[in-house]
Write a structure and sequence with these properties.
Helix content is about 40%, strand content about 20%. The chain has about 450 residues and is an alpha+beta fold. The strands form four sheets. Strands 3-7-8-13-12-11-9-10 form an eight-stranded mixed β-sheet. A five-stranded mixed β-sheet has the order 15-14-16-17-18, with helices on both faces. Strand 1 and strand 2 form a beta hairpin. Helix 5 packs across helix 9. The chain is elongated, with a radius of gyration of 30 Å. The two termini are about 45 Å apart. The N terminus and C terminus are likely disordered. The protein binds one RNA strand of 74 nucleotides through helix 3, strand 8, strand 12, strand 13 and helix 11.
RNA sequence: GCGGUCAUCGUCUAUCGGUAAGACAUCGGUUUGUGGUACCGAGAAGCUGGGUUCAACUCCCAGUGACCGCCCCA
């Protein structure tokens, strides 16, 4: 749409003064990094919705929706004060009432809050929660990265057995593969519990300090702020350093090591191919033990993370709930859809009307409105173009829609209580009693369906 | 937050310092109440704000947005 030039309008003077008010032209675009999900995009979105809802149901997850807005400290405390997400990417603002709130940057924090608040620990464990919706990060947009994006999220509370980790990873990869993305790479790692991570961190820091001169500027800073992040720096020289750095999996405490080992055994049992990636850290502070990501397996082009997650055994307690182990993961819907398009995965195909209702003349026009609803009530999907007058133009539309049958209701038919039923393939038509219409159409569509089936 | 590329009908793509062209799509028509093709016609654009110039869509500056790299992440 063309943008209107800004106009200067003179407001009629109430007093003596004439005021010129500059009217801001409407910016006919969404804010930066946000976009519309248009009707043409919906088949892909619908496919994601259907597949994820079905998987959620099959694996025993219950849907939960929490607000888009939460108190800001819910996120700062759970995700971590010094993470990038909280530090520079959160949409934080103060309400008129003076509350500091934020647009959710992810779904888990809100789910945990709700779990505790609603006493969901009394439910049979594990409590499995499925949620989906938009999340917000004030980041610089790029393809596959938006300020508003959508996640499909699975969380399970109250089970510490690594079998749940394995099943969660299975759900994640099933979800992505069920959407038609066959080539994926599963990356797993264990970052241990607070106890073993602390000693590992110290070990890592002292190693990095010794190699400090060989690191990039950013990583020198990271040694202090977030040493684990040095491990996934893409700078070549940092890569060299981290290649021979101590790895978290080698410094796990007994419990964490056993947990990880058992998880891998389960994954083998599930025939899930995985890569142990010692560099896999994640951007949120709450993770413990198992972390994983699913990457698009495309050879060429960048490997984009389609989704990821991990265990967060201490979060619920830290937020003030009962000590409850938990694990979860999220996929980024926009990225998944981008990948679906790239590999030409099939979107959802909505049912198309096989019947078109055409009308001619004022009397028929009035009648047709009711006839349409009669058909609809009987489960017959009908298309129409009531606004068009000529039969020719209506048939044109019918043809373009690819319907099998067109019903023609004109002046004469209306008076006779009949309707013309036209076969759009053969062109043959017959005039039938309007009262038998529904029954006849049902019959015709049924037999046509059989024909179509044989043709395929 | 830093660096780079780009911006013309709904979409794709031309052109030009002097009235912006085409294709696809949309809508209408080609005599009566019947579709396709073909043909004819219509509507539809210079992102915004400044500057240079007799004249700017074109040159310059700023803003905005998209894209790419970094940071980070889904």
């Amino acid at each position: 749409m063309p943008q209107k030039k800004s106009t200067t309008v003179k407001i009629a003077p109430k007093k003596v003064k004439t005021e010129k008010i500059k009217i801001e032209p409407l910016k006919l675009q969404p804010p930066r990094g946000m976009k519309d999900i248009l009707p043409v995009d919906q088949p892909f979105w619908e496919q994601v919705r259907r597949v994820s809802e079905r998987l959620a149901r099959d694996y025993g997850y219950l849907r939960m929706d929490t607000p888009l807005v939460e108190y800001a400290n819910l996120f700062t405390r759970s995700i971590g004060e010094s993470t990038d997400i909280v530090e520079k990417e959160m949409y934080t603002f103060t309400t008129r009432g003076g509350d500091k709130v934020a647009l959710r940057p992810e779904l888990t924090a809100g789910n945990c809050r709700s779990y505790i608040q609603n006493g969901m620990q009394v439910m049979a464990k594990p409590v499995k929660i499925f949620s989906t919706g938009p999340v917000y990060r004030y980041d610089r947009p790029q393809a596959g990265r938006y300020r508003e994006h959508h996640q499909v999220n699975f969380d399970a509370f109250g089970e510490q057995d690594p079998i749940l980790d394995a099943q969660m990873i299975q759900v994640a990869s099933r979800l992505i593969q069920a959407l038609g993305i066959k080539s994926i790479q599963l990356q797993v790692n264990s970052i241990g519990c607070p106890v073993c991570r602390k000693s590992y961190k110290e070990l890592l820091v002292s190693y990095l300090e010794s190699k400090k001169t060989k690191l990039c500027q950013d990583c020198k800073r990271r040694i202090v702020t977030n040493p684990l992040r040095v491990l996934d720096c893409k700078e070549d020289k940092c890569f060299q350093v981290s290649a021979s750095s101590p790895q978290s999996v080698d410094h796990l405490c007994d419990e964490c090591r056993l947990h990880f080992k058992t998880l891998l055994e389960y994954l083998d049992e599930l025939d899930l191919l995985y890569v142990i990636n010692p560099r896999l850290v994640r951007g949120l502070d709450y993770y413990t033990k198992t972390v994983f990501e699913i990457w698009s397996g495309s050879e060429e082009g960048r490997k984009l993370s389609l989704g990821g997650g991990g265990r967060y055994d201490n979060l619920i307690k830290q937020m003030g709930g009962e000590d409850t182990p938990a694990i979860g993961f999220a996929i980024g819907v926009e990225r998944i859809i981008e990948e679906m398009r790239r590999v030409q995965a099939k979107p959802y195909k909505p049912p198309k009307p096989k019947v078109f209702l055409a009308q001619l003349g004022n009397l028929a026009k009035k009648k047709s409105l009711k006839m349409f609803s009669e058909l609809e009530k009987n489960g017959i999907l009908v298309a129409e173009s009531f606004g068009r007058g000529s039969l020719k133009s209506q048939l044109k539309v019918a043809n373009r829609l690819g319907v099998e049958i067109t019903l023609i209701l004109g002046q004469k038919e209306t008076l006779d209580g009949t309707v013309i039923v036209k076969n759009m393939v053969t062109g043959a038509q017959e005039t039938i009693n309007a009262e038998k219409l529904v029954e006849l159409i049902k019959k015709k569509l049924k037999s046509d369906t059989v024909v179509v089936y044989h043709n395929n």
